[in-house]
Amino acid sequence: MMVKSTGKIFNLGGLEVRRLLPRKKFDSIGPFIFFDHMGPGLIEPQTPINIRPHPHIGLATLTYLFDGELTHEDSLKNFITLLPGGTNLMVSGSGIVHSERTKSDTGFTINGLQFWIGQPIEMQNELGRFSHWPEIPRFDIDGVNAELIFGSYKNYHADQFNDAFVLSLFFSNQEILNLEFDDENEIAFYSVSGNCKVNESSISSNELTESNSKSINIVAENNSRLIIFGGKPLGYQPYLKWNFASHDPQKIEEAADRWRNQQFPKIENDPEYIPLPENFYET
Known about the structure:
The protein is built from 1 helix and 26 strands. By secondary structure, the chain is mainly β.
């Protein structure tokens, strides 16, 4: 029997967000140290998403939308509105600041995923970077429709900076798929919608599970959207606190001091920012 989790739900300005990682059952999956499913939910013009400028170190944020739009702006002077079917990848390195907001004058539904991916130690002192893919690879695997959100699969390649991957599969009722993955990878499955059986263990909508087997048999019990993600472990114990990640907790403390003293790079013409949490140093 595979261990399952439905995460923890919290409210982001009226939008329901389901936090799947980190949780007690799953601290990380390969290099993935954080995973949110936001929505689906209605965004009204009078109550937009307004995540003010905030910093990151030691991780990459990967954002993908099924529906809606989300505007990213950062201290590298990138200003991009992400739309369904595209991805934003922000690799923070030694430090980057960004904001995420909705700016539409009309109401719309937003539904999407965000992953945080721990960086290898040798990349944690590099300068940050950002990339936007307006269209990701789409193909079929033995008749099942697939999208490659991140990394590589067979001869398909999306945005990446390591050997991890995120694959989105769209099943019709009773479709069957067999997959093989590298023995060194940790693999997880998340049902965005619908029910599937993975190696004869049922997964319902909004459930996350991990498989120890790298030979995977998937049977769709109805029309389903399944996310498969994973990769090789980081090779170190990742420390995650607020928006900072590192192999060294001292680097997290140093980053907190830099943010408190406003020593991170700034976003042009945006004086707003999220302060360091008051209880940051208490735990």
